[in-house]
Amino acid sequence: MQAIDPDAVGDVHAVWADAVAAPDWAGPPVWVHGDLHPANVAVSDGTLLGVIDCGALFAGDPAWDLAAAWVLLPAGATARFFDAYAHADEAAIRRARGLAAMKSLLLMLMGQNGDRSRPRGKPNWGPAGRAALDRVLKGV
Q1: Quick one: residue 16, left, alpha or beta (phi over 0 = left, psi -120 to 50 = alpha)?
Q2: d(CA 106, CA 128)
Q3: Do residues 69 and 102 make contact, with C-beta atoms less than 8 angstroms apart?
Q4: Nearest Cα to 62, choosing from 38, 39, 85?
Q5: If you average pLDDT over residues 126-138, what whole number do you get?
Q6: Rounded CA gap, 86 and 93, in Å?
Q7: Which PANTHER family does the UniProt entry name for this protein (predicted)?
Q8: Which of 45, 51, 58, 67 is the most exposed place for a label (fewest CB within 10 A)?
């Protein structure tokens, strides 16, 4: 698994800086899964069947789960997803995009650890993380 392209590091930093600069969630805390990624959802023929591993469940900012738009959905689906989601204002989307960048990098790291036969490494997570990071950086 190839590490992040050195030319993209500045882009990742810009996404993260924008997320940090976005206004905080001002609404009441909502229940969020907190760890939505390809290994924690069950899908069949493109239809979500269920969500598993609720060990990170908490009440807080919905941006944590909205980050799944980049991590789980195919390129081009994020705009439609956010248009349909009633609570996805610009600030939530900015925070979610930053969290999606972080989650993508973690998936890539887990994949790299798997490629190197390190404990708890998951070699098949690297490509999913790379694809998600590409979507995050392209904003699609």
Answers
A1: alpha
A2: 11
A3: no
A4: 85
A5: 94
A6: 12
A7: AMINOGLYCOSIDE PHOSPHOTRANSFERASE-RELATED-RELATED, BIFUNCTIONAL AAC_APH
A8: 45
DSSP 6-62: GGGHHHHHHHHHHHHHSPPP-S--EEE-S--SGGGEEEETTEEEEE---TT-EEE-T
| 12 pLDDT above the threshold of 90 | yes
Contacts of residue 56, defined as CB under 8 A and 6 or more positions apart, other chains included, come to 33, 34, 35
Tokens of 70: 């980049």
pLDDT of the residue at 13 = 95
Contact between 126 and 1 under an 8 Å Cβ cutoff? The reply is yes
Tell me which residue of 96, 91, 103 sits closest to 133, measured CA to CA. 103
pLDDT in tens, 46-76: 788 999 988 889 999 999 999 999 999 989 8
Handedness of CA 110, 16, 53, 75 (dihedral sign): negative
Q: 82-98: per-residue pLDDT in tens? A: 988 877 899 999 999 99
Residue 129 has a pLDDT of: 93
